[in-house]
Amino acid sequence: MTQAATLWSRLHERDTTLWPDGNVAATRLGWVDSPQQYAKEAADIEAWAASIDCSRVVLLGMGGSSLGPEVLRAAASSDRLVVLDTTDPRTIASVELDDAFVLVSSKSGGTLEVQALLAHAWGRLGGDGSRFAAITDPGTSLAKLAQERGFARVFENDPDIGGRYSVLSYFGLVPAALLGHDVTALCERASSADTEEAVELGLAMGEAAREGRDKVTVRTAPAIAAFGLWVEQLIAESTGKRGTGCVPVPTTDVEEGPDRFDVAVHVGEAADLGAELYRWEVATAIAGHVLGIDPFDEPNVTESKENTAQVLDRLPLPDLSGSGGLADPSGVIEWLRAQVSAGDYVSLQAFLPYDEAGALDSLRRRVRDALGGVPVTAGFGPRFLHSTGQLHKGGPDSLVAVQLVPRRPTARLDVPGKGYDFGTLILAQAIGDYESLRARGRRALQVGVDHLGEVG
């Protein structure tokens, strides 16, 4: 039996000794056979989805609960599903809810952002529970709230599936059905994935990281660029810990360098996504085996959450505009040139409205080229706090971070039931994350912008 076949057999049999002692794998391996298990639910999922006649479905979620559905939305070329995974007030206010059905998606049921977004949507829709459904683990506060409020449906997921490995469970398949995907076909393609090839990818990815080629450059076609964001959170949160990890760099360009491990992603028809999603889940778990880490825990994710809570507890927010506060955007590239060395990567962290997505992508390319091809990642906060944020704190000390925050609130929108608005919340999250990075000695610059075109 080949090494790949042996490792797949051990993974398929849920052998937790693949990873170091003390790992949490015993309660995180439900994803291994989720394609087979949830194929049995496909007819029910699709029948329920067909009963929802709203022209728009708004999904409230974070991390794995939102990025998997976003991949499926892009693959369907549909604008029926709107994924709302931010606390930026301008973005939230731009999402039309009047004729929408709301899908609330949270494994824990207690995610701060999801709770705030649910409070907003509940108020906007006049407390009509028939316009809501929930996806969560059994017994969570969200499951109980959904029952109390008369939600149209509560999908209780297998609790042994972690958020970032959950796309082939209710968390991904319910949105898929609402988008018109063939749920049975997605599960069948995932079940027929070449698992030994997936193991070999994980082995190669892990060994490359050990050799210094730890920047996993994931190239996709522009039409499925969202897949890069999904695999970025999967790899980063799974492997970025104990001072090591694979640094995912999603891109639609050819990017080369001595620290790169390049993988091209090709997806044919939409159902083929099932196999590709499963392939990367297997590969990432095996990369954790090679690196000697637990790919299912997230030991550093709570740091920024706790810091955010502390910032909110001591409102009003500190004034960042004074001496020693926000840096001038015109000096960002000059600062980066002074900080970045061989083997480093740059993370552009934008706590800004999603309508800046095109400008953020352009800035990523501009910074990459200005620094001679250095790996550059770019993401929106607070979304990345539930994914790549783990890598930023727990991974290798090769991060150079630029945090981009608005000089002034982008809009005024209250968080119902709280003593603050969404503008205050997102800035508190930015401050909390910046404090966490600095406490860990990471090189980080906090920059105030009105728009990303100012950065130079």
Low-confidence stretches: none
Number of strands: 12
What is the CATH C level class of the domain at 33-188, in words?
Alpha Beta
Helix content: 40-55%
Description:
The protein has 456 residues and is α/β, with parallel strands linked by helices. Among the domains are: 156 residues, 3-Layer(aba) Sandwich (Rossmann fold), CATH 3.40.50.10490; 154 residues, 3-Layer(aba) Sandwich (Rossmann fold), CATH 3.40.50. Helices cover 42% and strands 14% of the residues. It has 17 helices and 12 strands. The strands form 3 sheets. Strands 2-1-3-4-5 form a 5-stranded parallel β-sheet, sandwiched between helices. Helix 7 links the parallel strand 4 and strand 5. Helix 3 crosses helix 8 and helix 11 runs parallel beside helix 12. The protein is globular and about 55 Å long. It starts with a helix and ends in a 7-residue tail after the last strand. 54% of the residues are buried. The model has no long low-confidence stretch (mean pLDDT 95).
Summarize the structure.
With 456 residues, this protein is an alpha/beta fold. It contains 17 helices and twelve strands. Strand 4 (132-136), helix 7 and strand 5 form a beta-alpha-beta unit.
